[in-house]
């Protein structure tokens, strides 16, 4: 190999080690960047005219490699809208408010912007809309994705659908004697109403319960709906425990809400047969007989959105309301690729697909090989500072050695020129 060849080879080494130093610098600079994946140099030798009998080195080339699939450590976050992927895959984001121009990221520093959308440094999180139970409303393709708008359900209410009645009917009441108690409930719009329940003793160990048309809690003079279900018959055992109900199971149906709410069907739980866990019949020691009824029902008044959080099993995004409700709003998908390391890295911690990476396949989090979405967590950088310092020192030594080769070759050129003179 000629002296010029030695210099050319050393120059490629200088260039390669310079690039490696740049990678080390980027890695160290991003050691605290959430979702960052370390880049490293992959070296390959070059040969000039390898069929020649003499040695003809061409030097070295370096290519940038990024282990995009490397899992960073998950760290707890105080922000409930922050999230991380534990396993393979990426969040799907858009760089525009129309939901087009999809990109992919592992950085889950999402916060609610002034318009109610989940965004991270100018890119918006995409998801599938769900019903209140967390079931995806439409399809599960890329075309079914939409920007996650936390204000999609700014207020929420829950109608009464089940009610457990707990109380004692006085066994020492006379046949035909009646007592009243109040039954509280909510319509589908969150309006509170009250229905009067009349308990009538119809025989030994036998009572009936009839429900009056409910009136608005805000105005007792206004009828809120019409009761369309019949009277409930309740029978007790000789030991005071519940024996049976007719119909079984009992229910209360309400139609024609004057509030504009949907018709109601309320399943009534009067207790367990053979037990006194709900209704019971024991003699009362009160001077004035009566029925004290406790109603535990599942309806709630209308409430406003207070916060959001992510379920840690399947990526369901919930809205938490000030009335105590938690309602599913979106399902956050996880995108996987045939070759994620072939994705093109962009500024801001996002990636764009390439022909080599293949198209994105969307999964419900935790299924199909995709990682789980962990709410209130963030994925830390995969940079190992100890390793980076070691690489930096090795690169510095290699760079110095290549520079020394050039110095030596120059000295040899100087010797040659002196000899020619």
Automatic annotation (TrEMBL):
Domain Flagellar hook protein FlgE D2 as annotated: residue spans: 178-289
List, alphabetically, the PROSITE patterns matched.
FLAGELLA_BB_ROD
Task: Please state the protein's primary subcellular location.
Answer: other
The residue ranges of the Flagellar basal-body/hook protein C-terminal domain are 376-418
Domain Flagellar basal body rod protein N-terminal, first and last residues per copy: 7-37
The cellular location(s) given in this protein's UniProt record come to: Bacterial flagellum basal body
Asked if Hydrolase is a keyword of the record, the answer is no
Does Nucleus show up as a keyword for this record?
no
Which residues are in the Flagellar hook protein FlgE/F/G-like D1 domain? 84-127
State the UniProt keywords alphabetically.
Bacterial flagellum, Cell projection, Cilium, Flagellum
A Pfam family for this UniProt protein? Flg_bbr_C
Protein family per UniProt? Belongs to the flagella basal body rod proteins family.
Tell me, in a sentence or two, what this protein's role is: A flexible structure which links the flagellar filament to the drive apparatus in the basal body.
Name recorded for this polypeptide: Flagellar hook protein FlgE
């Amino acid at each position: 190999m000629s002296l010029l060849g030695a210099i050319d080879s050393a120059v490629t080494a200088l260039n390669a080690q310079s690039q490696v130093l740049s990678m080390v610098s980027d890695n160290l600079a991003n050691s605290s960047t959430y979702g960052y994946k370390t880049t490293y140099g992959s070296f390959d030798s070059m040969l000039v005219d390898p069929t020649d009998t003499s040695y003809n080195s061409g030097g070295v080339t370096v290519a940038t490699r990024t282990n995009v699939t490397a899992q960073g450590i998950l760290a707890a976050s105080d922000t409930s809208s922050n999230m991380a992927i534990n396993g393979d895959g990426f969040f799907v984001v858009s760089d525009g408010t129309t939901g087009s121009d999809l990109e992919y990221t592992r950085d889950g520093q999402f916060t609610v912007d002034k318009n109610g959308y989940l965004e991270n440094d100018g890119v918006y999180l995409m998801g599938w809309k769900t019903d209140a139970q967390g079931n995806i409303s439409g399809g599960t393709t890329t075309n079914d994705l939409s920007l996650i708008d936390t204000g999609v359900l700014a207020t929420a209410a829950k109608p009464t659908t089940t009610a457990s009645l707990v109380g004692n009917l006085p066994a020492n009441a006379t046949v035909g004697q009646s007592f009243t108690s109040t039954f509280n409930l909510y319509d589908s719009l969150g309006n509170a109403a009250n229905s009067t329940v009349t308990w009538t003793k119809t025989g030994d160990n036998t009572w009936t319960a009839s429900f009056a048309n409910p009136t608005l809690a805000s105005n007792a003079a206004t009828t809120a709906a019409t009761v369309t279900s019949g009277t409930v018959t309740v029978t007790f055992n000789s030991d005071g425990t519940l024996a049976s109900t007719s119909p079984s199971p009992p229910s209360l149906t309400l139609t024609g809400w004057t509030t504009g709410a949907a018709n109601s069907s309320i399943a009534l739980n009067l207790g367990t047969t053979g037990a006194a866990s709900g209704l019971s019949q024991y003699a009362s020691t009160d001077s004035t007989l009566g029925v004290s009824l406790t109603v535990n029902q599942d309806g709630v008044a209308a409430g406003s959105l207070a916060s959001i959080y992510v379920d840690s099993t399947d990526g369901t995004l919930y809205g938490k309301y000030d009335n105590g409700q938690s309602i599913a709003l979106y399902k956050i998908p996880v995108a996987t690729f045939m070759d994620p390391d072939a994705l093109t890295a962009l500024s801001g911690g996002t990636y764009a697909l390439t022909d080599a990476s293949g198209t994105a396949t969307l999964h419900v989090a935790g299924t199909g090989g995709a990682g789980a979405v962990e709410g209130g967590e963030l994925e830390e950088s995969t940079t190992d500072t100890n390793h980076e310092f070691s690489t930096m020192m090795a690169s510095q030594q290699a760079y110095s050695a290549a520079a020394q080769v050039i110095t030596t070759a120059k000295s040899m050129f100087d010797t040659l020129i002196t000899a020619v003179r």
